[in-house]
Design brief:
Elements (H helix, E strand, L loop, with lengths): L2 E5 L2 E3 L5 E8 L7 E7 L6 E6 L6 E3 L7 E6 L4 E6 L8 E8 L5 E3 L3 E5 L2
Parallel strand pairs: 2-11
Antiparallel strand pairs: 1-3, 3-8, 4-5, 4-9, 5-6, 7-8, 9-10, 9-11
């Protein structure tokens, strides 16, 4: 059964850190580009960070560059998002995505990140 299960969200104070994890099952993880997206209330879902399958290169939204880091462990079928120096505007539901092409494009259920003092 294909699954993407996110974890690691929660409440953190501004300036704090969180590490999100997304464990994949049911497909060949190493062949998929993995990404994190987020959606705040009343806003569209936006891409936060992506890591390729081929060479592990990464790309980030301008709003998180220098603060967030995406990584993957193919042996554990897991992708991570290390989030540092969190700001209130980073608060959102964070979703994990696995994509190989338009036919093979999967989403997790999301994990809530709240940044508040």
């Amino acid at each position: 059964q294909l699954q993407l299960v996110e974890s690691g969200g929660g409440l953190v104070q501004p300036g704090g850190s969180l590490r999100l994890s997304c464990v994949a099952s049911g497909f060949t993880f190493s062949r998929y580009a993995m990404s994190w997206h987020r959606q705040a209330p009343g806003k569209e879902r936006e891409l936060v960070a992506v890591i390729t399958a081929i060479d592990g290169s990464t790309n980030y939204a301008n709003s998180v560059k220098g603060r967030f880091a995406i990584s993957r462990d193919n042996a554990k079928n897991t992708v991570y998002l290390q989030m540092n120096s969190l700001k209130p505007e980073d608060a959102a539901v964070y979703f994990c995505n696995a994509r190989r092409n338009t036919l093979y494009d999967y989403w997790g259920q999301g994990t809530q990140v709240t940044v508040s003092s």
